[in-house]
Amino acid sequence: MSTAVDHTDKAGAFKRKQSKHRHFVSKDNAQYPPESGRYHLHIALACPWANGALSTVALKGLDGAISHSIVHPTWQKTRPDDDDDAHHGWVYKAPGDEPLKNSIGHGSFKCDDLLVPDKITGAKSIRELYNLAGDEEGPFTTPVLFDKKTNTIVNNESTEILKMLNSEFDEFATNPDLDMYPADIQDELQELNDSLIYPKVNNGVYRCGFAKSQEAYNDAVKELFESLDILEEKLSKQRYLGGKKFTWLDLRLFMTLVRFDPVYITYFKTNQKRIADYPNLLGFVRDCYSIPEVKKYLSIDHIKTHYFTSHPILNTYAIIPAYDGPDLEAPHGRENI
Ligand SMILES: N[C@@H](CCC(=O)N[C@@H](CS)C(=O)NCC(=O)O)C(=O)O
């Protein structure tokens, strides 16, 4: 049983494990057809991938059709009564529960009002939920799209969950006309994602932070900042990555950039520059944040608390640094780009 921090190759480079649960809700899928009230999302607000999925629920107006629950940001031992079991990961708590310490007993991290326990299965951890669905191996990651009818996991790959939310539930959506995957630019967006944004930025920050050799870190940090320079230039000429429309790729980039200054520059050692030093990336972050459905589920508090308190091997005493990142409410000034 391992967590992302442990997933490195022989050269010390971080290698994210492939998601295992890959069913696709669609009208053509008799096993998992779109239905209102049937599916549930398990979410860590701190997690860029899960946060994007929940924002998409809000953007499409699917809150009434797809329920969700929200874990505590601080990873805990998932089998606290078993001394031989070392796994720690996401757990459910209710608002007002006793504050949690990190998994080796340091700090005190409140159970705030954003927490939503899993009332569907009663699972106390995301691991327990995977176990319920027959997965003992893990990794026990969020987001998880769960089927309440068959009590199993439909999908745990955020890129696929985003696609389903965009197109498969429109009959229940209050904003069905929003298309986050416009066909005319989808190939271009996918190519930009696959060649640069996912490997070098979204996952690139983790490749910096979870590297276990100087060489692996050096490679990742070089690619990350070269990519940020390319994106800064691109976003000096257009409002969003695909032009004038806000798409899934903007949401994915936003989720990384908004975590960059408050967390990654310190925790993942991505400190060559801050997002605040890139005028266009900073404006882009503020522009995305000004969308009410994006802002709705963005918690800098959960984000900082999660990273700084969840991996004792990286931050033993779970001290959370003071800086919250740039003012996200400031005018973005990008309306006419
Ligand atoms: N491929 C997954 C990755 C999700 C992922 O790595 N989530 C992290 C949080 S940001 C997680 O839950 N990690 C738990 C662990 O590594 O044990 C996706 O994009 O959906």
CATH C-level label of the domain at 183-298: Mainly Alpha
What is the C-alpha radius of gyration, as a whole number of Å?
19 Å
Number of β-strand runs: 6
Bound molecules: glutathione
Order of helices and strands: EHEEEHEEHHHHHHHH
Strand content: 5-15%
Global geometry: globular
Q: From the 3D coordinates, which CATH architecture of the domain at 183-298 would you assign?
A: Up-down Bundle
Major sheet characteristics: 4 strands, mixed
Trace the largest sheet across and list its strands. Answer: 2-1-5-6
Would you tell me the structural class of the helices and strands? alpha+beta
Distance between the termini: 48 Å
Give me the number of helical elements: 10
GO cellular component, one term: cytoplasm
Protein name: GST C-terminal domain-containing protein
GO molecular function, one term: glutathione transferase activity
Organism: Cylindrotheca closterium
Question: Can you tell me about this structure?
Answer:
The structure is a single chain. This protein is α+β, with helices and mostly antiparallel strands and 337 residues long. The chain has a domain at 183-298: Glutathione S-transferase Yfyf (Class Pi), Chain A, domain 2. The chain contains 10 helices and 6 strands; from the N terminus they run βαβββαββαααααααα. A 4-stranded mixed sheet has the order 2-1-5-6, sandwiched between helices. Strands 3-4 form a two-stranded antiparallel ribbon. Helix 1 (48-60) links the parallel strand 1 (39-43) and strand 2. Helix 7 (248-267) crosses helix 10. It is globular. The mean pLDDT is 97. Residues 3-4, 19, 44, 47, 49, 89, 139-143, 156-158 line the site of glutathione. The site of glutathione (GSH) has 15 residues, from loops.
